[in-house]
């Protein structure tokens, strides 16, 4: 019974999350060095640098140039490609998140939805023992 409830909860959260569009900041520290760099000063009420209808928000830091780029990963017409977290390589750090305007963060981030799903899984796994 609890397993079925857990499975349905995760599927429901995933479906709702897939159907909702995100808004993401769309800027670069190259063009806005004082507002879109390591120190982020753009405001959510300034719609000039916000892109709607995103699948996920992306933040990229290029080590060689020390530039930040924040952008929207557009929704795909053929389905949903779920990516979250950060990838590190020698040249840059690329992070994906799934909350509105979440690519403002200066740290690695986990969306609130992912945190909730993790808590539900832990709760039900401890109850089923």
UniProtKB/TrEMBL annotation:
It comes from Dreissena polymorpha. InterPro entries: QVR-like (IPR031424), Sleep_regulator (IPR050975). The keyword Cytoplasm does not apply. Keywords: Glycoprotein, Signal. GO terms for biological process: regulation of synaptic transmission, cholinergic; sleep. Residues 1-21 form the signal peptide. This is Protein quiver. PROSITE patterns: PROKAR_LIPOPROTEIN.
């Amino acid at each position: 019974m609890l397993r079925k409830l857990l499975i349905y909860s995760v599927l429901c959260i995933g479906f709702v999350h897939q159907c909702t569009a995100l808004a993401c900041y769309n800027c670069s520290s190259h063009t806005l060095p004082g507002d879109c760099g390591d120190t982020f000063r753009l405001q959510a009420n300034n719609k000039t640098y916000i892109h709607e209808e995103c699948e996920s928000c992306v933040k990229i830091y290029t080590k060689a140039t020390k530039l930040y780029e924040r952008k929207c990963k557009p929704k795909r017409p053929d389905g949903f490609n779920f990516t979250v977290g950060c990838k590190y390589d020698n040249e840059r750090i690329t992070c994906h998140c799934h909350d509105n305007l979440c690519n403002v963060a200066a740290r690695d981030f986990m969306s609130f939805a992912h945190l909730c799903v993790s808590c539900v899984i832990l709760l039900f796994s401890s109850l089923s023992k």
